[in-house]
UniProtKB/TrEMBL annotation:
This is Alpha-hydroxy-acid oxidizing enzyme. Residues 47-424 form the FMN hydroxy acid dehydrogenase domain. PROSITE patterns: FMN_HYDROXY_ACID_DH_2 (PS51349). Residues 1-27 are annotated as: Disordered. GO terms for molecular function: FMN binding; oxidoreductase activity, acting on CH-OH group of donors. Pfam families: FMN_dh. The keyword Flavoprotein applies. InterPro entries: Aldolase_TIM, Alpha-hydoxy_acid_DH_FMN, FMN-dep_DH, FMN_HAD. Glyoxylate binds at residues 180, 215, 321, 324. Residues 17-26 have a biased composition (Basic residues). Keywords: Flavoprotein, FMN, Oxidoreductase. The lineage of its organism: Bacteria, Bacillati, Actinomycetota, Actinomycetes, Nakamurellales. Its cofactor is FMN. The keyword Protein biosynthesis does not apply.
Length: 424
């Protein structure tokens, strides 16, 4: 039989008749409560940063703030950029295994790195030419890291000197120094001593750069430091006058730590300074000269992690150099579980390359890393808003990590373990 509703049959007696909603004129006070206008700052950078919810948002803001060649120098990778893509694809394969009703009303995202406290398991890693991204460069990054309570690693190829960065951030700032083993062993030893004298706490030796990887975007863009004035750059000046004014009216852009070379031919300069013949015996000599924690950055196999341990390392960074050196190199996140399983009780294991969210940090820590290093993300923030942009990046990672722990049902970073995550 056809249902009564379908035939338009009479409504059952138990259902009351429909009444129209009464209308009224709202009071002005009620309308005022609904009007929510975002505050507008006279500083465009403040407005940009307020709108940014993710590192990707800051990346897009950065793209619009600096010349194309500068953005792609930071954003690009080696050769076909396969390693870059595979690195992000690995993080996209992460699947969390949350638990529920664990009663964790608060979560603790703090950790310790080499005996010093850190507000979260994050390090602002070493990146070259920071002053290309923003005229304050490494000074802005160091201040932001100190305010955020996390370490900052200054690179040998920095545009602000070891001593000038050491003067930023106050006595409690956790400063790391990143070293390349150079052809001039006397210069290598001198840099170690300067870092020690200036109060840097951790020495990070990068070992995956015997020569510079081919970054095709840089070649095609005619990337140089400082940028040459060509018809393309002259057009760029009209589009980004603030960046160019800051570049031209502040101290010259040079390598501030190593002897002055030809920064405009940076790849050739680097290939002439770094020593491709360096061995683990040279690393052992650095170990003998440095009495603090020693970290080897650029480890990509379990076997080399063992060799770093034998040479005296206290920690390793599993890294593909952000996909900027050897294309088709191993993906750090995929190497991590085995290295952690075999050496996690003897080395502090860190990871970089492709870490874009606080959830990525949670996944890496669950798989065995003590912390993650990032490079491009804080440079995006630096391009978008200077020091405040770098602080925004730190805040984004912290908020995302805290939220991930809440949703995983875990009370702290220390509670993260293999049971919380798997790679699909």
């Amino acid at each position: 039989m056809t249902a009564p509703e379908a035939t338009g049959a009479t409504r059952p007696a138990s259902v009351p008749p429909r009444r129209r909603t009464a209308r009224r004129i709202p009071r002005p006070s009620e309308i005022r409560q609904l009007v929510q206008l975002d505050p507008i700052s006279p500083r465009p950078a403040t407005n940009r940063l307020r709108r940014a919810l993710t590192v990707e948002d800051l990346r897009e803001a950065a793209r619009r703030r600096v010349p194309r060649s500068v953005f792609e120098f930071v954003d690009g990778g080696a050769e076909d950029e396969l390693t870059m893509r595979r690195t992000r694809e690995a993080f996209e394969r992460v699947e969390f295994r949350p638990t529920v009703l664990n009663g964790a009303s608060e979560v603790d995202i703090t950790t310790s790195l080499f005996g010093r406290p850190s507000a979260l398991p994050l390090v602002l890693g070493p990146t070259g030419f920071c002053r290309l991204s923003h005229h304050e460069g490494e000074r802005a990054v160091a201040r932001a890291a100190a305010l955020g309570g996390i370490p900052f690693a200054l690179t040998t190829m920095g545009t602000v000197s070891i001593e000038d960065v050491a003067a930023v951030g106050g006595p409690d700032a956790d400063r790391w120094f990143q070293l390349y083993i150079m052809r001039d062993r006397g210069l290598t030893a001198e840099l170690v001593q300067r870092a020690k004298t200036a109060g840097y706490s951790v020495l990070v030796v990068t070992v995956d750069t015997p020569v510079t990887g081919q970054r095709r975007k840089d070649v095609r863009n005619g990337f140089s430091v400082p940028p040459k004035l060509t018809p393309r750059t002259l057009l760029d000046i009209s589009r980004r006058p603030e960046w160019w004014i800051n570049l031209l009216t502040t101290e010259p852009l040079v390598f501030a730590t190593v002897p002055a070379g030809e920064p405009e031919a940076h790849a050739r300069f680097i290939d002439g300074v770094f020593d491709p013949s360096a061995t683990f015996a040279d690393l052992a000599q650095v170990r003998a000269a440095w009495d603090g924690p020693l970290v080897v950055k650029g480890i990509q196999t379990v076997e080399d992690a063992y060799r770093a341990l034998d040479a005296g390392a206290d920690g390793v960074v599993l890294s593909s150099h952000g996909g900027r050196q050897l294309d088709r190199s191993p993906v750090a996140l995929e190497v991590l579980p085995r290295v952690a399983d075999e050496l996690g009780d003897r080395l502090e294991i860190l990871l970089d390359s492709g870490v874009r969210t606080g959830a990525d940090i949670a996944a890496a820590v669950a798989l065995g890393a003590k912390a993650c290093l990032v490079g491009r993300p804080y440079l995006y923030g630096l391009m978008a808003g200077g020091e405040a942009g770098v602080r925004k990046v730190i805040d984004i990672y912290a908020a995302e990590l805290r939220r991930s722990l809440h949703l995983l049902g875990l009370p702290s970073v220390a509670a993260l373990g293999p049971g919380a995550v798997r790679l699909r």
